[in-house]
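Working notes for the structural subgroup meeting. M.R. asked for a predicted model of this chain before we commit to crystallization trials. I am recording the input and output together here so anyone reviewing the notebook later can reproduce the run.

Input as submitted:
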Amino acid sequence: MIRRTLAALLAAVCFAAIAAAQPKPAPKPKPTAPREPSAAAEKARENYRLTCVPCHGPDGRGVIPESNLADGKWKNGSTTAAIAKSISDGVKGTAMLPFKDRFSAPEILELAKLVRGMSVPAKATKPGGK
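Returned structure, recorded in token form:
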């Protein structure tokens, strides 16, 4: 009888030790509050509104198909760097004028980020549309 009780007690202690040794699930991450846009991002929105909206529209869909920034079709590359180059240097043979004399390089980079964010998710392409 004592053997059975000791065996049962030993088994209970072993099960308790095994259960206690199991890893606990990681705590769920707490949701974070949305971040406020940086001053540079706000300035880019303002620059876009004042300079780009007449041709590209407020949502980037363009007033003519060729000026659509939201369709994911990029002839001169869709990377942030390629877009910044188009903004800075303009696009030959189109109505897209160069803006390097109007905006600083950091402002052009922020505009490029804003414009890239308007496009439907698409693979980044290099100049030439490939």
